[in-house]
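quick one before i forget lol
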Amino acid sequence: MRMRMILCLSVLLLTGTAWAQERNMARLSCSDSTFVDVSLGVGGATGTLKDIFAPKQTVCGGLDAVSRRKLDKVSLYGRFGYGYDYGFGSTWRGWIDPYETPFMLADSIPGSLSLERYAMEAGAGVPLGGGWSAGLDLAYDVSLMAKHKDLRNKNTAMTFRVAPGIHWQGDRLGLGFDAGYERSTERVEYMQVSSSVEHVLFDLYGLWVYHGNGYASAETRRFKEGKRFFADVQIDLQMGDAALHNNLRGSWQESVQTEVGYNNQQFGTTRSWTWEDVLSLDVGKRHHLEASVAFSTMEGLRPLQRQELDPDSRIRVWVTYGDPVFCYWRGVHTERLFYTYGTTWKLTVGVENWKMDQSYTEYPQRFVQGIGTVTSSASMMVPLGRQFELTASAGFAKDYDPVCTITPWQLTEPMLLQWEYWEGDSWLAGLGARWTSTSGRTYVRGRYNLEVSTEPASDIGGSRHTASLTLGFIF
């Protein structure tokens, strides 16, 4: 999603890796590689061309360590990642990932925001004989976010995942399957240090439909917990000089928001389906083709509740009536196709199509948004001697089919700023460099990206600059 490319500028993106993602650890047995890769990264972003949730400026730093080792017949994998982002001028950021749910607490006061992430992952693969192997993937991530100006929100999030897998490898064909369970929680607490100014805390329902109240301690806390079930099927096929790899992934996720307290107030439930298929084809050493299709849907439901007096405790509690009412829907699909030619130098050309539609219903009103973006790009990697390589890229993002309804029920100013960013076309450019020592055990990687709006005079026009520098060691 283009709107999350700017938002999710984190250290693990800057260092070239991602936070722990599920994988079939049984496939570890197909390789005897043993290494330890430790990298340190710094980076940042600045510019007015940004998502409404993103800070105006961000500086980042972090550490990433990955290890693979084979002990007798057991193949082991381990990883630890730490990232720290500090952003200036952040607003409306009630959850760590504001696109994870349409139901959110948020405030409009700009302030500095810090985000810490810890990622731990472990995996093992064991051969079973006859080409079969089994594996287990475990991951535990922790995220901490805090705003440093009233209204101040402090977020604490956790994700735990377990996923067993199996794999069969023949002479030309490999088949794999893994499935797993993931549990996630996030707690947000609001507080105010200064007592001389009254701030407004907004309760957002979806598409910026809201109600807002002056800050009060009784409305400061919210808890979100989710569960996700997923499965992957992998196919590897060798046909002479051609090698085909395909991964089909599906997942179902449910998330529930409740009050942090004793009287059971509920704020909303989301249910999501996601399907993704990624295919890559290598023909010889010069040709590489990669294609992917992803589709996800999200439903948002709100409970029917009212406060009633408990006759035993004489305390007013929230009572739920019937099933939750459907109110929000979002559908996103993405298609990518990229072709790479070359061995020592490589030319990559490709196109990506992204389309999002969403709606929110507050009877009798219905609010609708929809936008699509087609991004075409090309990049060239050129080696400069044996130790240096330079990569240059360029692209253009063109938006289409914009639909946006606006009513006084919505927070129109932030919604229009966000919409202006989504709707505007932009030019993309990037420059990267990598140096590797003669021993191959030390590397330095740098990257600079630029996005320039075709309407620089608009409120959210101008440009966005991101840069990163990574120092790595391989043992």
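fyi Residues 43 and 468 are 4 Å apart (CA to CA).
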